[in-house]
C-alpha cells in the first residue's frame, strides 16, 4: 500500500520529494532499494539487538511497511523463534491484509498483533485495505490482538465511527486504539487534541506516536 492520502512527505536519496505514508523509505522500492540491506540469515537480524544495552528480555515490535510480507520466509521464522527463546515479547504492526498460517508456523500464536487496518483517509480502496477473513483469523489465533487506527483531524467526522465499526465488526470484542497521523512532530501535535476528544466521546483508547514526538523525523537514533 502507498497510503498517499496520509500526505507525509519524504526526500529520496537523490533529493526528489515524494508523498505517501510515514514510512515511505521502508516500502518504496523504486526510490529506496539502494538503502535496504539484504538479509541472508536469522543471525544477522538478531545482531541488531547487540547494538543496544538491553535487559534480558524486551518488547520487540516489528513494523513496516508491512512485516507480514515475510511471514513464510524460513529466515524470518527462525528469527522469530530465536527471539521467543530468548524471552522477548514480539508484536507485529500489520495492516491486516495478509494471511498468517498459524498451524504451520506456531510461533505466530505466541505473538501480539496490532491490527493497523487502513481507513479511507489512506486513499486506498476498501477492498484492498479491509480483509475481514484475515482480521478474524488473526484475532482468533494470536496470543493477543488490538486494533490501531491512524487518524488525522480532518477525518474526525460523523462517518469515522461508522468506518471503525465496520472494520471492528470482524472482531467486535477487540480493543480499539486511535493514533494521531503524522510523519513529523508538528503534524502529530496538530492531530492529537481533536483525536483525544474523539476517543473520549466514543470510548476508544488513545495511542500516542511517541517516537515522532521525541525524535521528529530523525531515524536510527
From TrEMBL:
Mind listing the UniProt keywords for this protein, alphabetically?
Answer: 4Fe-4S, Iron, Iron-sulfur, Lyase, Magnesium, Metal-binding, Queuosine biosynthesis, S-adenosyl-L-methionine
Q: Which family does it belong to?
A: Belongs to the radical SAM superfamily. 7-carboxy-7-deazaguanine synthase family.
UniProt enzyme class = lyase
Origin species: Sulfurimonas denitrificans (strain ATCC 33889 / DSM 1251) (Thiomicrospira denitrificans (strain ATCC 33889 / DSM 1251))
Q: What is its EC number?
A: 4.3.99.3
Q: What task does this protein carry out?
A: Catalyzes the complex heterocyclic radical-mediated conversion of 6-carboxy-5,6,7,8-tetrahydropterin (CPH4) to 7-carboxy-7-deazaguanine (CDG), a step common to the biosynthetic pathways of all 7-deazapurine-containing compounds.
Q: Identify the coding gene.
A: queE
- Give, as in the UniProt entry, the pathway in which the protein acts: Purine metabolism; 7-cyano-7-deazaguanine biosynthesis
Tell me the cofactor note: Binds 1 S-adenosyl-L-methionine per subunit. Binds 1 [4Fe-4S] cluster. The cluster is coordinated with 3 cysteines and an exchangeable S-adenosyl-L-methionine.
> Which residues does the record give as Mg(2+) binding sites?
23
Protein name per its UniProtKB record: 7-carboxy-7-deazaguanine synthase
GO molecular function annotations of the record: 4 iron, 4 sulfur cluster binding; carbon-nitrogen lyase activity; magnesium ion binding; S-adenosyl-L-methionine binding
For biological process, the GO terms are: tRNA queuosine(34) biosynthetic process
Q: Give all residue intervals belonging to the Radical SAM core domain.
A: 1-217
HAMAP family assigned: QueE
The residues that hold [4Fe-4S] cluster are 8, 21
Catalysed reaction, written as an equation: 6-carboxy-5,6,7,8-tetrahydropterin + H(+) = 7-carboxy-7-carbaguanine + NH4(+)
This protein's superkingdom? Bacteria
Residue positions binding substrate: 63
Gene3D superfamilies recorded: Aldolase class I
Amino acid at each position: 500500500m502507498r497510503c498517499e492520502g496520509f500526505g507525509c512527505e519524504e526526500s529520496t536519496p537523490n533529493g526528489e520529494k515524494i508523498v505517501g505514508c510515514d514510512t515511505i523509505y521502508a516500502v518504496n522500492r523504486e526510490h529506496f532499494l539502494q538503502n535496504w540491506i539484504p538479509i541472508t540469515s536469522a543471525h544477522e537480524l538478531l545482531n541488531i539487538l547487540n547494538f543496544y544495552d538491553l535487559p534480558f528480555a524486551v518488547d520487540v515490535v516489528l513494523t513496516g511497511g508491512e512485516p507480514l510480507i515475510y511471514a513464510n520466509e524460513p529466515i524470518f521464522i527462525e528469527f522469530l523463534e530465536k527471539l521467543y527463546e530468548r524471552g522477548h515479547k514480539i508484536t507485529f504492526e500489520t495492516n491486516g491484509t495478509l494471511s498468517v498460517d498459524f498451524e504451520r508456523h506456531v510461533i505466530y500464536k505466541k505473538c501480539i498483533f496490532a491490527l493497523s487496518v487502513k481507513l479511507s483517509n489512506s486513499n486506498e480502496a476498501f477492498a484492498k485495505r479491509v480483509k475481514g477473513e484475515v482480521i478474524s483469523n488473526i484475532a482468533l489465533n494470536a496470543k493477543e490482538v488490538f486494533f490501531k487506527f491512524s487518524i488525522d483531524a480532518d477525518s474526525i467526522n460523523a462517518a469515522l465511527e461508522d468506518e471503525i465499526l465496520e472494520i471492528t465488526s470482524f472482531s467486535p470484542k477487540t480493543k480499539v486504539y486511535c493514533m494521531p497521523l503524522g510523519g513529523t512532530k508538528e503534524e502529530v501535535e496538530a492531530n492529537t487534541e481533536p483525536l483525544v476528544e474523539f476517543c473520549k466521546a466514543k470510548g476508544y483508547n488513545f495511542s500516542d506516536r511517541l517516537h515522532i514526538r521525541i525524535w521528529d523525523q530523525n531515524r536510527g537514533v
